[in-house]
Amino acid sequence: MTQTTRPAVPGSVPDCPRPRRRSPFAVHRAWIVAAVTFVTIIGGAAFNSLPGLLIDPLHTEFGWSRGEIGLAVSIDMALYGLMAPFAAALMDRFGIRRVVAVALTAVAAGALASVWMTASWQLMLYWGLLVGLGTGSMAMAFSATVTQRWFVARRGLVTGILTAAGASGQLVFLPLCAWIVVEHGWRPASVTVSLAALVVVPFVWLLMRDHPADVGLAPYGGTYAPKPAPVRGAAGRAVRVLADAARTGPFWLLAGSFAICGASTNGLIRTHFVPSAHDHGMPVTAAASLLAVIGVFDIVGTVFSGWLTDRYDARRLLAVYYALRGISLLFLPMLMAPEVRPPMVFFIVFYGLDWVATVPPTLALCREQYGDDSAIVFGWVLASHQVGAAVVAFLGGVARDVFGSYDVVWYASGALCAMAALMALVIRRVREPADAVAEGGTGR
Description:
The chain is an all-alpha fold and 444 residues long. The chain contains 18 helices and no strands.
């Protein structure tokens, strides 16, 4: 292929290939990178699907309390969230391919080592620390970084596809892991998760590239740009932005409400729905399949919520989402039964639509309040989401040990959602300049 020369740019990596012309019929490398990212995120769904299925088997085999098991899950969730503000900095410093390959290896090692554990502290080390650090390094920063570097055109489409990958993986792995746990035990399920991580590593290493300039290409729909030098100090900026945002009231309202969001989704439903349904006689495979259906409807709910966020006040949307979620949780104990009935199906569909519907308005409020720093602020708000999930993953298990059922957990979470609705309503609005409104601002 014909190559063209380009003058060096200060600060760029000197040994990048020169830009090259592509055949109009060739598939752009960006789509291959996106496909590898999609497969990696689907594999990541296996890691997130298993912990909730392990509570009853580990309790039965080792006699560990559900609080101990929940603590390991909470460590995993907390690290997943706390790594989010730094994951992008790691990828800027060391490259996407290296970070993701090491993260997958850490997850595989943690899942595989758990097969031989005999004490609860090992569960906290393997599934809490190793899997938590691994999945946290591949959190939202992975798909966001790939989309930002490799695409100019079709960014929205690619973002939607990569977001759907998590739900698609949940749909595949939850019923599969549940079937393996019921038919063959929890150890083969843990080995399956480990293999799912290891299988993806060669694809990441061979097909993933950190930047289009690594292969002499422009990003899809854009113009060629040399690869920038590794970014230093990004982690320090993340800490500085947190320190500045923490001095403002809206940050704590956003972080607090999003912590309740995480508590009522990942911490509560994803972790404790299956064992709670099993307490009422529902087969584990049936409960896991219901949980997988949530992953289908959360795609629809998120897209629709984004459409609404463009048209209505994000505060009011959040208040409605949290209020309806809280009401549904108050009814959940009455819906539990040995078989799947229509009211339970209605709850699952509704909860799926509401699951991550809070993300678009929360992100919109971060943009409104913090401008250029909004992405980093949202990273910290996302960290609070996972910390909230971690707390309830632990306390939910403790409550089951103390009260003998999960009913108090559902009622308490419903009350927390009501609090989140009130927090959303009191976030102050940032007044737009008069000229911006005259030119057609939001008008909300």
